[in-house]
Design a protein that fits this description.
By secondary structure, this protein is of the alpha/beta class. The chain contains 8 helices and 11 strands. β1, α1 and β2 form a beta-alpha-beta unit. α3 runs parallel beside α6 and α6 crosses α7.
């Protein structure tokens, strides 16, 4: 019987092969994708137990891919791979929904140990999903089967943070942190302006949910 399924998104084919071999030797099942789009396509056919995502993918930022996964209800633990070790980059990875952060070059043994620790802690529940509309991190767009509405990178990050918690109020501070992960000082009025723009874009999609104001707290998708 195969072990837990780990999906890898890594555009360096040699590194992807090394990762896959190391994981399989440890009894883990794995599949390697070379882009964010390919990873999201794989997830349509297989539910992962964990993911390893390179931040510098050729078609998208790995953090945007992670946010898209969280917005789809995929709550499997995510380890980011990156050559960038600045504090602001690590914090942005955690704010995007990542669970751990490994800087290149790294030890395969350490990566596997971190992965196993995350698998042990992972819950078995699945987060609720927003039906009818999906987030495309490569195109930075809201999509249905028939339509696509483009988003700016900041709009994408804000809507992904909301999408990850349908039916729950997301606090303003969390939306600010998601939308501006580099720690920029942004006013509440700026966030409100982005919400207005997102509401306008959602209205262009008949199947899309609405963004509701939760007074004194933040916003909610419902």
């Amino acid at each position: 019987m195969p072990g837990p399924l780990v999906l890898i998104a890594e555009d360096d084919a040699a590194l992807g092969a090394v990762l896959a071999r190391g994981l399989r030797e440890e009894g883990l099942d794995c599949q390697v994708s070379g882009s964010g789009t390919e990873l999201l396509e794989r997830i349509r056919h297989a539910t992962p137990d964990a993911l390893i995502i390179d931040i510098g993918l050729p078609d998208s930022d790995g953090r945007d891919v992670c946010q898209a996964l969280r917005a789809q209800g995929i709550d499997a633990p995510v380890i980011f791979l990156t050559a960038r070790d600045a504090l602001v980059d690590r914090l942005a990875g955690f704010d995007a929904g990542g669970d751990d952060y490994v800087t290149k070059p790294f030890s395969i043994e350490e990566l596997i140990a971190r992965l196993r620790a995350l698998l042990r802690r992972a819950g078995a529940h699945e987060a609720p999903r927003v039906q009818g509309v999906r987030l495309d991190p490569a195109a930075h767009a809201l999509c249905t089967d028939a339509q696509r509405v483009p988003l700016t990178p900041t709009e994408f990050r804000i809507i992904a943070a909301l999408w990850s918690h349908p039916g729950e109020a997301v606090r303003r501070r969390d939306l600010l942190r998601a939308g501006w992960p580099a720690g920029a000082i942004v006013s509440d009025n700026t966030l409100d302006a982005y919400i207005v723009r997102l509401r306008r874009k959602l209205r262009a999609l008949p199947e899309a949910p609405t963004l509701t104001t939760v007074h004194g707290v933040g916003y909610m998708v419902e």
